[in-house]
Design a protein that fits this description.
The structure holds 2 protein chains of 2 kinds. By secondary structure, chain A is α+β, with helices and mostly antiparallel strands. Chain A contains 3 helices and 7 strands. Chain B is of the alpha+beta class. Chain B folds into 3 domains: 160 residues, Aldehyde Oxidoreductase, domain 4; 335 residues, Aldehyde oxidase/xanthine dehydrogenase, a/b hammerhead (Aldehyde Oxidoreductase, domain 3), CATH 3.90.1170; 231 residues, Aldehyde Oxidoreductase, domain 4 (2-Layer Sandwich), CATH 3.30.365. In chain B, β14, α10 and β15 form a beta-alpha-beta unit. Classes of the chains: A alpha+beta, B alpha+beta. Chains A and B meet through β7 and α3 of A and α9 of B.
């Protein structure tokens, strides 16, 4: 499934870029995230609780940040698996100055399998969008602190 | 022994009699597999692959085994010596992948069983299954059969890079000549999408091993208890006589339980290993992922004809989505499509090429109609496409090409001998019931008002009564036993194990008529290999059409014995058995069936050459298939704003030969039409490009609900079959076979004003709306 969208953050681009790379902040902002632990340079292990349609479960995942080009863009790859299936996502995030803040746009691919695919596919699109929105809302809140 | 006056009572065969099964079914007192409780029974939960294709790098069962209440965890390493899940079909050059009951080092479809957790209750089993850690290395997968045929597609089985399980060619007549002489040729790609059979009762197995007797009893929701016993015994390495299979109440099968599944052997294996009874009940999600699917065709048709509408020949390239493995009959199903290609028409030039394709999906196999709905959809669509091309009425073109009553028995180009038929009769009756000219006038009016109304006709034929043994993989005969108790009460045993067909009623009607007793004097037993002699099972519309004649002949055999005992008791050679009594034609004296039966068991005296007791068994081999037919007319209205299709009339005139019970025949037609409408309008099993099933539950897979059904006007003509003494043909699949082309023809007719020539199923509102916007559906 292709995903994409734009979000406005009320902070300067340098700050926005560094926040998006900060494991502590990411852990606070990713919905359901139970913590990010660095395993290598730009690789983290993540625990995440996910609920989709009538199912929910814990995912053990990996987050990898690559193609870093501060403060303009980077690539984010997320991989997770749990009892209710697996998910894989890969997206390119771009940051541009806009209206005194930063506009973050993203395009990517999400793949799911197992029970979440079999029973949750029809809600995947809206759930992914909602989770991404909650992530950026939370990030905007962090920026204000 | 007073002189008796016999009054002729009305025959039960042909009557609308309510089912003997119904009281227990509607009061919840029937016993399904999940109702079985046993002392010390354990419960199993199966760990399944979330990946359509993956290497299994390792399985860690420690955490699961440590969970209190878990008694055993087995993986493919434990079960690899159990025999493979069997494929009963054989075709020249067929590639048969070894089908372990649990994946050994690789998984081939999403839902592939990988391990089983056995616990003291089903909740612990499920919790335990979540603790099994499987380390998968995902591999590329392919789910679309046409993509699987492309160069460079992922190989489902690494040993066969082209994903081709078999190529099958069949030809009759001279197709090249027919196409060379054709004045018109029409071509169309037609799909019959993957469907999920959705029996109301999912699969379930209880296995109970008696370590003292070394005997295993397997209770399974199956259509074929005896075949299952033979094949399971081989898989488990058990002597066949140490295995008993029981099909208790079976809540629907539609072909999905005409199979031998990994889980049936797995539960036998578990019970033998733990020495306790074990139960596995399939969840609905497992049912959708792991029980066979049906259909899965991509068909390329070419029809040759003359300008006057005479059909000359038909060519078909058939791409069959087989899934990852062959289940019991998987590769045989598309060959049935080829047999049925000519439909009801006289042309004798046929060419078919099947390519059976492996995909990383659950296997396809028999689903109500099994190959014949696909073929009927093809021929009936092509006839309509030809009619449109020639601007002929779809009724006229059909009547022009029908085989005529005097041409029977009719040899088809595909090697069948159609037994009997009068194809005009149901069509004419349907046209009259529908007021066809009136419908066409209404349609013209509607079109003037800008409304989209369609009238669709399908005239179908089908192959029933599977079947002569040489044409079936495991024998196509059936058996019946009739036993009369000393009190004169009758027990009928049939090998045609029913799963909703109502044989306890129809077979009681047949037996009661022959023996001159009442419905309540007969009980029909089935489904237990320890109770009834070897039988083949119920599928392919064979219950009544093969099981029925077996019963008829068993009854004739027994009636001879009754007459001999009657003659002995009446001390006369001139005795008739009529209305349940043996009557001396000279004295008029008579004895009742109970008196005769009682005498046969007391055996104080025996007729010369007779043994005691009153029981007869008959194994009947049918000399041919039967070939029912019919005409369905469907009126639809398409909402031009939303693309929603309303079926405003559904007229079904089915000719299934002699009718035993019209109520049950109507029930079969209604149910079949519901599933046909499901395919035509709503249902589709969808896999994404990675082999993930996206329609994994009833929220996403749209089976028709009661409110989505039109009233089905079910009518009949009766053309007896000469193949069997009852004249019956079979009707279990007629609805699904006749329905889909009638509905699609109707909607295409409605949209023909927009230049629409064909629509693939399911005709969802979105698809129709897209067409209405000028797009490609």
């Amino acid at each position: 499934m292709k995903i994409g969208g734009v979000y406005q953050l009320p902070v300067a681009r340098d700050r926005a870029y560094s926040m998006l790379q900060d494991p502590a902040i990411l852990a606070r902002c990713i919905p359901g995230c139970g913590g990010l632990n660095r395993t290598a340079g730009n690789e983290y292990n993540m625990q995440m609780k996910l609920a989709l349609a009538s199912i929910s479960g814990l995912f053990e995942g990996k987050v990898r940040i690559t193609e870093q080009n501060p403060p303009e863009s980077f690539r984010l790859a997320v991989e997770g698996k749990g009892k209710i299936g697996f998910m894989k996502g890969d997206g390119l995030l771009r940051l541009v100055d806009k209206d005194g803040g930063t506009e973050v746009s993203y395009v990517g691919d999400v793949q799911v399998g197992g029970t979440i695919a079999a029973v949750g596919q029809r809600l995947l699109d809206t759930t992914a969008k909602m989770m991404i929105k909650r992530f950026f809302d939370q990030l905007a809140e962090c920026a204000g602190q | 022994m007073a002189p008796t006056i016999i009054t002729k009572t009305e025959k039960l065969v042909g009557q609308r009699i309510r089912r003997k099964e119904d009281p227990r079914l509607i009061t919840g007192t029937a016993t399904y597999v999940d109702d079985i409780q046993m002392q010390g029974m354990h419960h199993a939960c199966i760990v399944r692959s979330p990946y359509a294709a993956a290497k299994i790098a390792g399985i860690d069962t420690k955490a699961a085994s440590a969970l209190p209440g878990v008694v055993a965890v087995f993986t493919g390493a434990d079960t690899k010596d159990v025999g493979p899940v069997p494929c009963g079909a054989s075709l020249p050059g067929l590639r048969v992948p070894y089908h372990h009951i649990l994946a050994v080092d690789r998984t081939y479809f999403a839902g592939h069983p990988v391990a089983v957790v056995v616990a003291t209750d089903r909740y612990i089993a499920r919790d335990g299954a979540e603790l099994v850690e499987v380390d998968y290395d995902p591999l590329p997968a392919v789910a679309d059969p046409e993509k699987a045929l492309e160069a460079g597609a992922p190989a489902v089985h690494p040993e066969w890079a082209d994903n081709i399980a078999f190529n099958f060619h069949q030809e009759g007549g001279d197709t090249a000549k027919a196409f060379a002489e054709a004045e018109v040729v029409v071509k169309q790609r037609i799909t019959s999408q993957r469907l999920i059979p959705t029996a109301m009762e999912t699969r379930g197995v209880v296995a109970d091993y008696n370590t003292g007797d070394e005997a295993l009893t397997v209770y399974s929701s199956t259509q074929i208890p005896h075949l299952l016993r033979t094949l399971l015994a081989q898989m488990l390495g058990l002597p066949e006589h140490h295995l008993r299979v029981v099909a208790p109440e079976v809540g629907g099968g539609f072909g999905s339980k005409l199979n031998v599944y990994a889980e049936e052997a797995l539960m036998g294996f578990v019970a033998m290993r733990i020495g306790k009874p074990v139960k596995w009940i399939e969840s609905r999600r497992e049912n959708y992922l792991c029980t066979i699917h049906g259909r899965g065709h991509v068909d390329y048709y070419e029809m040759a004809a003359r300008k006057d509408g005479t059909i000359l020949g038909l060519r078909l390239k058939l791409i069959q989505d087989l899934g990852a493995y062959h289940q019991l009959l998987t590769p045989a199903i598309p060959t049935l499509s080829v047999l049925m290609m000519p439909g009801l028409y006289r042309f004798k030039n046929i060419q078919a090429d099947i390519v059976g394709v492996f995909t990383n999906c659950v296997p396809t196999d028999a689903y109500r109609g099994a190959g014949r709905p696909e073929a009927t959809h093809g021929i009936e669509r092509m006839v309509d496409i030809l009619a449109a091309e020639l601007k002929m009425d779809p009724v006229e073109i059909r009547m022009k090409n029908f085989i005529q009553p005097e041409e029977f028995p009719f040899a088809t180009a595909t090697g069948l001998i159609y037994d009997s038929g009068n194809y005009d009769a149901p069509l004419k009756k349907a046209l009259e019931l529908a007021d066809y000219p009136g419908l066409r006038r209404r349609q013209a009016e509607a079109r003037k008002q800008g409304k989209l109304m369609g009238v669709g006709v399908s005239t179908y034929g089908e192959i029933c009564a599977f079947g002569p043994s040489p044409a079936t993989p495991a024998g196509g005969w059936e058996c019946a036993t009739v036993k009369i108790d000393p009190s004169g009460k009758v027990t009928v045993g049939t090998g045609a194990s029913p799963h909703g067909q109502g044989e306890e009623t129809t077979f009681a009607q047949i037996a009661a008529d022959e023996l001159g007793v009442g419905m309540d004097d007969v009980v029909v037993v089935h489904g237990d290999t320890a109770v009834v002699p070897y039988g083949i099972g119920t599928f392919g519309s064979r219950g009544t059409a093969v099981g029925g004649p077996a019963l008829y002949y068993a009854l004739q055999k027994l009636k001879e014995k009754i007459k001999k005992f009657g003659a002995m008791l009446l001390e006369s050679e001139d005795v008739t058995f009529v209305e349940g009594r043996c009557v001396c034609n000279r004295s008029g004296k008579s004895v009742s069936l109970a008196e005769v039966a009682g005498a046969s068991y007391r055996a104080m005296k025996l007729p010369p050459g007779e043994d005691p007791g009153m029981q007869a068994t008959y194994f009947w081999e049918p000399p041919n298939f039967t070939f029912p037919f019919g005409a369905h007319i469907v009126v639809t209205e398409v909402d031009a704003d939303t693309g929603k299709i309303a079926v405003s009339r559904y007229i079904a005139v089915d000719d299934c030969g002699k009718i035993i019970n019209p109520l049950l025949v109507d029930g079969q037609v209604h149910g079949g039409v519901a599933q046909g409408l499901g395919q035509a309008l709503f249902e589709q099993a969808v896999y994404d490009e990675n082999g993930q099933l996206l329609t994994g539950e009833l929220m996403d897979y749209a089976i028709p609900k009661a409110t989505m059904m039109p009233w089905v006007e079910s009518h009949h003509t009766e053309t007896p079959s000469p193949v069997n003494p009852l004249g019956v043909k079979g009707v279990g699949e007629a609805g699904t076979i006749g329905c889909t082309p009638a509905v699609v023809n109707s909607v295409v007719d409605a949209l023909s004003v927009l230049g629409v020539r064909h629509i693939d199923m399911p005709m969802t509102p979105e698809k129709i709306w897209t067409l209405l916007q000028g797009g490609q559906a």
